[in-house]
Write a structure and sequence with these properties.
Purple Acid Phosphatase, chain A, domain 2; single chain; eight-stranded mixed beta sheet; 32% helix; 16 strands
């Protein structure tokens, strides 16, 4: 590790389980069999002072009923925490729209197993006024991390256990933390799914957060990579896409790993983009050759287009992204139904129930600002 710089690695969504329409065919079974999903990317994460990702599920078996899709989907095994530690992760965001999907006990178990591996959790609710509990990592540079979800809470109707990201809350937390760190990172679970472009509101909020004192913003939730912006010499990563996820849509199989260098004074940001893609087992692999070049060119174009964000274009992009993913889901579901008919029947019943009775779409009492 170079003594002249602090090195930070950022990746996107991590979900070491089975997603909807993929129970029994996702990541959970191979991981429980001892397969290493990080074998090909491990060298890319080593020699970093901080390795950060968004944990998009719980690591818990509490209350699980294996024969029910609703109880099994979006769950990782608690033992996976040691795998995360082994590859180098030392901080994970837990403020997102799936972290309370299986209730508060599973969330608390997840925090416990992460703590047992020495992995800090960003985005935990600090107190009753909604503040995000800051994570302070002290080394060559004092690094402060704040985490928030800006998405509606769909599953849990009790009090939130993670920090919800209104603009006022984020600014207040930055004020409280800024003097205690040299480098301040804000993690935001935000935006719309399946699009390569952040919204106008996201861009506006990110600029306001940087102006208020943040040095790096790292975004996630869209399951796609998006543009990267240097704003007032500070870094805005709108979304890194998926890192470890059972994505069966071509749109969401490619993500980014960002390696960032910061000088010991906490300034002078430099970064390298490493494109990655899920293989047939959904394990991340670094892209090479023309495939790598194509992704880097796309990221560069997306970054240049950030100045042209427009509400009408956002609607078109969201519709196109959803259509692409839904088409992939239908194709995948036909194979899945033959392999796992009992789970497939539950999927159809669950999907129909949600449509008819609007369940699983509970919106938290906080105002949603479309961030």
């Amino acid at each position: 590790m170079t003594s002249d710089f602090v090195r930070l690695a950022f990746v996107g969504d991590i979900m070491p389980g089975d997603s909807f329409f993929n129970v029994g065919g996702g990541l959970r079974r191979p991981l429980r069999c001892g397969m290493d999903p990080f074998e090909r990317v491990k060298p890319l994460l080593q020699d970093h002072d901080l390795v950060f990702g968004n944990l998009e599920c719980v690591l818990s078996t509490t209350g699980e009923r294996p024969w029910l899709v609703s109880s099994t989907v979006m769950r990782g095994d608690p033992s996976f925490a040691s795998r995360l530690k082994e590859v180098g992760f030392n901080i994970l965001n837990v403020a997102n729209n799936h972290t309370l999907q299986h209730g508060s006990d599973c969330f608390k178990e997840t925090l416990k197993v992460l703590e047992g591996q020495g992995i800090s959790a960003a985005g935990i609710l600090k107190d009753n006024d909604g503040a995000s509990r800051p994570v302070l990592l002290c080394g060559k540079v004092r690094i402060g991390v704040l985490g928030y979800s800006c998405r509606p809470e769909r599953f849990h109707k009790g009090p939130l256990l993670y920090a919800f990201g209104t603009k006022e809350r984020i600014m207040s937390d930055i004020d409280a933390l800024r003097e205690h760190c040299d480098l301040l990172i804000v993690s935001l679970h935000w935006g719309d799914e399946f699009v390569h472009h952040p919204s106008e509101n996201q861009i506006l909020l990110s600029h306001q957060v940087i102006d208020h004192g943040a040095d790096i913003i790292v975004g996630h939730h869209s399951h796609t990579y998006q543009g990267i912006e240097m704003y007032h010499k500070r870094l805005i990563i709108y979304s890194l896409g998926n890192f470890l996820f059972d994505s069966f849509s071509d749109l969401t199989r490619t993500g980014l790993l960002l390696s960032v260098k910061v000088n010991p004074q906490g300034s002078g940001l430099e970064y390298d983009i490493i494109p990655i893609r899920a293989n047939e087992r959904y394990f991340p692999l670094p892209l090479e050759g023309s495939y790598r070049s194509a992704v880097l060119t796309h990221v560069d174009n997306l970054s240049k287009e950030l100045v042209n964000a427009h509400p009408a274009a956002e609607v078109t992009q969201i519709s196109a992204g959803l259509a692409t993913v839904r088409s992939a889901e239908r194709t995948h579901f036909m194979r899945y139904a033959l392999q796992h008919p009992w789970y497939a029947v539950q999927d159809v019943v669950g999907f129909t129930t949600r449509r008819l009775f609007k369940t699983g779409a509970f919106v938290h009492r906080e105002t949603i600002h479309n961030y």
